[in-house]
Amino acid sequence: MTVDGDLASQLSELARSLQDEEDFEATLATMVAAALDLIPGAAEASISVVEARRTISSHAPSSALPAAVDRMQQKAGQGPCMDAAWEKKVERVPDFSVEDRWPSPTPSRSAA
Questions:
Q1: d(CA 102, CA 27)
Q2: Which of 81, 69, 75, 76 is nearest to 103 (CA)?
């Protein structure tokens, strides 16, 4: 995807707004809200933070769903967010109900 004028303008506005946030959690919450607005098809989001190069913590979930997914991944030690953080790559999961890259339960499979 190329950054067109409108997206560039929105990202610039986001960068300026982050300077006004009072603390770390507020900054992350603003980033999650912006991601949901700017990423086509994004319905839920949270931010994974690598701490001390050995643990990952979840912050600013947009609802209970990403918080639950993050907890499941942290407990299992695997999943798309864990891979994205450790391997520094984008992971896309259009449908957890048919996802087979991670053998641990996903939200759709654990509800069955």
A1: 31
A2: 76
